[in-house]
Amino acid sequence: MKRALIVILFLALSATAWGRAPDTYQVTGQVVAVEADVVTVMKGKEKFEIARDPADKTPVKVGDKVTIKYRMTAASIEVKKK
Question: Going by C-beta distance under 8 Å and a sequence separation of 6 or more, which residues neighbour residue 47?
């Protein structure tokens, strides 16, 4: 457990030291809901809830077709014993 935690910590610090940002992804679809901090986009039969950066002031309304670029961020990590 400690070993895995050390490896994860090392990788996180290494990525930060190298200045490497996570990959950017995108989704294009119709907006089905808009809140101050979340935009929900329907792509086919799949629903994407994307957190919205407070600095983004792009006017978006339900029914708009949009392309959203985003990065994945871990909310929490649970290490399982082998």
Answer: 32, 40, 41
Place of tokens 């309304």: 61
- pTM of the prediction? 0.67
CA-wise closest residue to 46 among 32, 62, 63:
32
Domains along the chain with CATH numbers: 22-74 (2.40.50)
What distance in Å separates the CA atoms of residue 78 and residue 55, rounded to the nearest whole number? 30
| Number of other CB atoms surrounding residue 41 within 10 Å | 23
**Inter-residue contact 46 to 1 (CB < 8 Å):** no
pLDDT in tens, 26-75: 999 999 999 989 999 999 999 999 999 889 889 999 999 999 999 988 88
